[in-house]
Design brief:
With about 190 residues, the protein is mainly beta. Helix content is about 10%, strand content about 50%. The protein has helices at about 1-15, 85-90; strands spanning about 25, 35-40, 45-50, 55-60, 70-75, 80, 100-115, 115-125, 130-145, 150-160, 180-190. It has an 8-stranded antiparallel β-barrel with strand order 1-4-5-7-8-9-10-11. It is globular and about 50 Å long. The two termini are about 30 Å apart.
């Protein structure tokens, strides 16, 4: 289609990428952060992230809308910079990590709206419940990394998760249930 041709042309032009770019990618964990924030009683915003995230992406610049991705986040890796809070978040009041050690996202549809922005819809599973989730994804840069000369994709993905819809309702009156998420990361060729 014309749209796919424009997307491919723009990416090749902006990155200097060639046909040698890989199509199988994985997260570079040293440069990836899955973050979130919640409002606490209207007084402050508490931010946190997950330290243990794995992900694979099949992305071909020639057919970007055929992209698919799969992410697995270990829930016990939650980190809000306060040990007591993190321990409470791991209990069955919140993430129940003993019963649900992971949360996952598996894409079901990718729609590039321009060469560097896409709407990615998929199945998000938290506390054993799976529901649709749409992420706004921006490709920040696609090029060979100047440090190691390896093909690299930089990206940001944002969205919102209604924690109450998954059964995480503890302190719903004081801690927001609509949780903004932001994933910043780099993808490298899958090994």
């Amino acid at each position: 289609t014309i749209k796919a041709l424009l997307v491919t042309s723009a990416l090749v032009a902006t990155t200097g990428a060639s046909a040698a770019m890989p199509t199988q990618w994985q997260l570079d964990n040293s440069h990836t952060r899955v973050g979130f924030s919640v409002e606490h009683l209207g007084f402050s915003t508490t931010m946190g992230h997950f330290n243990d995230v794995d992900g694979t992406i099949n992305y071909n610049m020639k057919s970007p809308n055929a992209t698919n991705m799969n992410f697995v986040i270990k829930t016990d890796s939650i980190d809000t910079a306060w040990k007591a809070r993190d321990e409470h978040l791991r209990t069955d009041d919140f993430f129940n990590v003993a019963k649900y050690p992971t949360m996952t996202f598996r894409s079901t549809q990718v729609n590039f709206i321009n060469p560097v922005q896409a709407k990615v819809t998929g199945d998000f599973t938290l506390l054993g419940k799976t529901m649709p989730l749409t992420l706004d994804v921006t490709l920040k840069k696609i090029a060979n990394n100047p440090m190691n000369k390896a093909p690299t994709i930089g990206f940001r993905a944002t969205g919102n998760i209604d924690r109450a819809a998954y059964g995480m309702t503890t302190f719903a009156q004081g801690i927001t249930t609509n949780v903004p998420i932001q994933i910043d990361g780099e993808l490298v060729e899958k090994k």
